[in-house]
Amino acid sequence: MSFQTPNEIQTQTQTQAQAQTASAIKSLAYVSSRCEIYLNEKGCFLTSHKFGIEDDEDEFCHKLLKRVFDTPTHTLLDQNALEYLNTRADFKNATGITRMISQFFVPSAELEMYRGNLKTVRLVESIDEPWSWSTPLDVDAIPPQLQLPSLSKVLPTPQPDYAVGFPHDAFTPVQLEKLKPYLGSDKQEQDEVFKTSAFQGTQGMLFPFLTSECKSFTGKPFVANRQNAHSMGRSLRGVVELFRLSRRQTELHRKVLGDNQCANYMVLEAGKSKYYQKLFWEFLIRSQTAAERWGTYNFVTAVYHGWAPRHFARLSSAIDMIPDANAHMDDASTAQAAVLKQRMGYGVLGGVG
């Protein structure tokens, strides 16, 4: 048995308080009703569109729901551990819930690969990492944008508790060369300023497609929904911009382009892209039925094995068809410089969203 000194207890308490404060700050902007108004203004909706997703997409998602994988044993979701979950979970903060159940709710994509279970696609994950390389919704998606200090922030940079996308080495050297003009950079040849990209989340993650936010059982679930909608709005816009470069954006109409607790899809309306959600499963981790408790785990694993390779093939085909970027980027950079000069003249340096 080990005992903690008063100083160790104080340090542990301070660390826990700092973690809770950081989590609260990260969520604060999403509590305001202004958040959802802003997301709607940017074409991101937390509801389903009246036409929904395409029938074949709906059928494919329901097939994923039926897939069953080997699940861990001797875990919190065992029948003999349910009393602990049902008794103690309500008293845990977000950090405690993450420690208790996160791996049983959203399994690790990288672990699935390193175990040799996932061989059809390469994935990369991030854990509570800010999407510093992702272009805000407030500015043009193409070309890569200067990251400027903001005088008025509506929403902070997304920082999902967990996210999955594709690593750079998932793509061929030729594909990476085609993407290069549109990727972010922390060092440009001339201006040496940081630039963001619509195609990135973190520096090493291209085209993120899954995000997850963890809250306490007594917290505000709508905050997590808004955080996911913000992250997915940025992610889906990147896919749409990729297909716009390839002149194939109409192919994405009512297609599922991202996942969290909902299927996230794009709808073209009057030539504009808007992003909607369809709820496919409920979080039933306290159910008395093992199949329901492991339902989310199985579905997310099915996304890695079934949906992600299909999505990757779609992205790859669009990248292969990107035309020569030089002329497009020269024109876009000239326009960007003019806008930047105008903004700086008025003393406004843009926003983050």
From TrEMBL:
The superkingdom of the source organism is Eukaryota
Where in the numbering of this chain does the DUF7924 domain appear? 86-319
Pfam families found in the cross-reference section: DUF7924
Q: Which InterPro entries did the record assign?
A: DUF7924
Protein known as: DUF7924 domain-containing protein
Native organism? Aspergillus carbonarius (strain ITEM 5010)
